[in-house]
Protein: ABC transporter ATP-binding protein
Organism: Chryseobacterium edaphi
Amino acid sequence: MHLLINQANIGYDKTLISNVNADLNLGEVCLLIGNNGVGKTTLIKSILHQNSLMEGEILINNKNVKDLSVKEIAENIAVVFSKSVIPQNYTVEDLISLGKYIYYPFYFELKKEDREEVKEIIQELDLTQYKDTLLTNLSDGNLQKAFIGRALTQNSPIIILDEPTTHLDEKNKLIILKTLRNLAQKQNKLILFSSHDWRLAKEFADKIWYIKDNHLYSGIVEDVLLQHDELTNASLFQFNENFVAPSIKSPQIQKEMLYSLLQKNFQKDLSSFNFSFNESIWEISHCNKMYKCESFEEIVILISKLH
């Protein structure tokens, strides 16, 4: 596991989250959700070792975060907080270029390949027309995208974002979330981001960390959502153009969950599969053979083997 939390109590003067056991691998996107005040930001700061654990340990690539220097943590984790200090007299391009600072001395000039990478990230985030605009003259949404761009240029294996879509409209929200998912899948990044928007889990995350009643519930998205009724009121996005859906016979909520899971994870034609939900078991037929799965995680493993 690249990020491991082991029997941790997280909080300040009192424990906010008890006995946390959770892990994430490179290539995974995890949504951290929970109501205001439950400890989401405190958990993020604990991973960054900006807040000491009351008990337990947090490991990054088998190294305890309390034993890492500030520079080592920056090399491993790029972070975007919901409230960031805005550098004065900086343009969008200046801010995004700052993500390279851990690889250079204090005074530096970017190499050609680094400038090209900054340019590509500016284009990917749809900020080209603002690249020379002062940060103080940006809208909240474009400012948030610029800070996310700085984190992307840092090229750390882990990217943590605290409420990254708060100030974004639907178009820009999709740009950010697609960018993050592409980073996880194509560049093997570990992405952890917090949000109040439960809808994002089904469409863009592999796993959920859900904080409720001083506990952290973790697991594959679809399994966790169905274990907590309050999380299943979600709307569906469609962004996988190469996905061809299979036949699915089930109650509506299970059907929507399975559809989201498959179109999120498989860039392929799945029309040769037939899914039927029967007494909490998924029955799957393919090439005249029948399979049974008890969880969505088992379904992902099965489809990966068969197709």
Observations:
- Confidence is low (pLDDT under 50) at residues 234-238.
- The chain has two domains: 3-231, 247-306.
- The first helix runs from residue 40 to 47.
